[in-house]
Amino acid sequence: MLKTYLIHLKTTIFAVVLFINLLMPSQISKIIQVSQFCRVSAIAAALIFLFGNTLKSQDPIFSQYYNAHLQLNAALTGNTNAPLFQLNYRNQWPNLDKIYTTYSLSYDQFITKINSGIGFSILTDNAGDGIIKTTGITGYYSYRLRVNKKSYLKGGIETGFVNMGLDWNKLLFGDAIDPTQGPLSPGGVPYPSQESVPGSTTKNYLNIGAGVVYYNPYYYFGLALKNLNTPDISFLGNTNSADKSAQSLPMRFSLHGGMQILLKSGNKNVDPTFLSPNLMFLSQSGYNQLNVGAYLSVNKIQGGLWYRHSLFNGDALIASFGVKKDFLKITYSFDLTLSQLNIRQGGSHEVGVVVSFEHLYPKRQDYNDCFAIFR
Fold it and tell me: Residue 358: its pLDDT value, please?
């Protein structure tokens, strides 16, 4: 029976096959036949069904979190007085046939009259080439309090409506794979499966989050909680399960902070040069991630280097490069996996586009904070 947290079979099959190719000598890898592939598929299916109740889901995370700050912390809503739009695209492991792709579009700005920031975002996460597709629309609000002459504390909340859909027709089960022919009969017809379609292959739920951030012109640090209501994301709707957490989206806890070191002041025609060492720690359902690195901006050119660690082993090296011209900033980043998967799975690619409308304001906007990395 399909379990609450569906980790689709197609992804698992590709992962197992890739694992075999990495560990087996190249001569043996070349002679892997359909029957062996099917055995791997059956093993993968068995693992899913045996351990499906304990599988957990995680929120999508951008390596360019500084270009997707609403996804990081609701308290970061409204870092500019003018409207700010951010467009993000992430393609993880492209050599594994569109295993994970994520898109995000957001808007936010600070409204001086109410001393608050407002914003919204649309995020679509596509797992397994559309097997599981999640789309969420979220609204954000933040309020700023002055602590002293140069320091501020911002608190933020977010509320989102999320739709999650399962494309049952793209699933491949172990009982629909012939040991010699594979998933298709000699006539090209897929073998049938005894697995039954759930009563509903779509799920709608409300998602709530909150966060705080303290900052001054030199440094900042923040704390954020997402999925505070731990919404039910089960397709089966099995309310009799003894482990209710196995049917819920786990809460995500994050800590983040950084500094802004001014190396050269800017003027009307030249942007300032600054260095921003920063870190981000995320924890969700036993999964931990720590990003440590630095972001350098020299006039119109930006770049950065980060090391991502899972607290048990090094995960990836992240490099980014971007350019900024007037109201537009475009950044590309690449995640180089440091495990045995390395470059064979294609790494992870991200593109971030930031559009600011501050050029429409008659007066140059000067901010007494350290949030230039987020603009």
Answer: 84
